[in-house]
Specification:
410 residues; mainly alpha; 21 helices
């Protein structure tokens, strides 16, 4: 199945365009918020705190609210989350909103990203059955990575030309359009849960979270795929240390952008290579090896390469990581029972965000001790070593076995 063939599928096209708009708006909003808060407070600490709030609450939303996509129609969950986020962003542009209120609104917007993404990932296998799912995931990776690079670069220019408030208004509009695209382009499907729900309220969501976590933990293949996807905690380090690495090799500020863009560029290349040219059965067999291989280019940073070689090494690592990440996510989602798919997807994506944050934090501490180049090399070596037992476990997990169905509903 070609990329064009998948894009001709009306439901996927609606989901893809909606996600594209949301990613573009979110990246623009991050730039706008950073500028707005710094303009109002002249505080780097408060600016950093506000920026962190565009990521951190998605962990809570991804764990506690992901089960929403197993209790309601997944189209309904996505549309509702989009409408809520559009309204919250509209409230941010009201003149004179206190900073503490702005922070709460930012956190709330990020919170609802968790259930939206979980419902979206849970719905995709129904929209794209068979080999189409893998191709669709490759398309999503290519476009989302490309949009992030363009939005970060263009967002600063746009916010400088207009105002941060206009940037937030544009983000609100993207969520409104996304909700319309999903409502009109994706057909309604019933609630996937097969048995009686576990009550109501926050206690019910907590119980559902526990059921979803047990479903993953009891299946060796799901546990292994989760660990494989979470290797990103090691491989995020080059992006996190781009600024100090550029300074350590005597490169200017412009080099930081190129170093940060290297991984997304490699990811786009990886999505093309693995999404179009490498057969899916080969990718499934090679998952563990790709997890190991992604760390090897980073180990070479111990030689303190110059700017151009470093960009190549970072891009190569990103390409190899994309090879295991896309197929690992596809295999993980396919193996989940339908009535627990949203909860499992939320656990995977929220854990991914968490390990990336922890990896970046640990890398910064290590870089102060041994230097950024050596810190990147250590992260690459550690990631490759951790991937070895994961690769062994994957070879034992029965790759070709049918997905395990865990009884019970979220």
């Amino acid at each position: 199945m070609s990329f064009l063939g998948v894009l001709r599928i009306r439901e996927f096209r609606a989901l893809w365009l909606a996600e594209l708009l949301s990613v573009l708006g979110d990246q623009l909003a991050r730039v706008a918020l950073a500028v707005l808060v710094f303009q109002r407070t002249d505080s780097a600490a408060l600016t950093g705190l506000t920026y962190a709030l565009t990521f951190v609450p998605s962990l809570i939303g991804g764990v506690l609210l992901a089960g929403w996509g197993d209790r309601r129609s997944r189209r309904e969950v996505m549309v509702t989350a989009d409408v809520i986020r559009a309204v919250l962003l509209a409230l941010m542009i009201i003149p004179g909103v206190p900073l503490w209120v702005l922070c709460i609104l930012v956190a709330a917007v990020t919170l609802f990203a968790g259930p939206f993404k979980a419902a979206q990932q849970a719905l995709l296998p129904d929209v794209l059955p068979g080999e189409r799912y893998m191709v669709g995931m490759a398309i999503r990776n290519i476009t989302s990575q490309s949009v992030q690079v363009v939005a970060f670069a263009g967002g600063g220019v746009l916010v400088a030309v207009v105002t941060p408030t206009v940037g937030l208004a544009i983000d609100a509009a993207t969520f409104a359009v996304s909700a319309i695209l999903i409502w009109r382009g994706v057909r309604w499907r019933p609630t996937p849960a097969r048995v009686a729900p576990l009550g109501s309220g926050w206690r019910s969501f907590a119980a559902g979270t526990a059921v979803g976590a047990r479903a993953v933990w009891r299946d060796p293949a799901l546990r292994t795929l989760l660990a494989l996807n979470w290797l990103a905690g090691f491989y995020i380090v080059p992006e996190a240390l781009a600024a100090p690495f550029a300074a350590s090799i005597g490169a200017g500020a412009a080099a930081v952008g190129w170093l940060m863009a290297a991984d997304p560029i490699g990811s786009v290349a990886g999505a093309v290579v693995f999404g179009r040219w490498v057969p899916e059965p080969v990718q499934v067999r090679a998952l563990g090896l790709l997890g190991i291989a992604a760390g090897v280019p980073l180990v070479l940073c111990v030689l303190r390469p110059g700017l151009a070689p470093a960009i190549v090494l970072f891009a190569l690592s990103g390409m190899l990581a994309t090879g295991y990440n896309i197929q690992g996510t596809v295999s993980f989602v396919r193996r989940l029972p339908d009535d627990q798919r949203a909860q499992g997807c939320g656990l995977n994506s929220s854990g991914l965000i968490t390990v990336q944050g922890l990896g970046a934090l640990a890398a910064g501490v290590l870089a102060d001790l041994v230097g950024p180049a050596h810190a990147i090399a250590v992260a690459g070596a550690a990631g490759a070593l951790v991937a070895v037992p994961i690769a062994v476990a994957w070879s034992r997990a029965g790759r070709g076995a049918a997905p395990a169905v865990v009884k019970g509903a979220v």
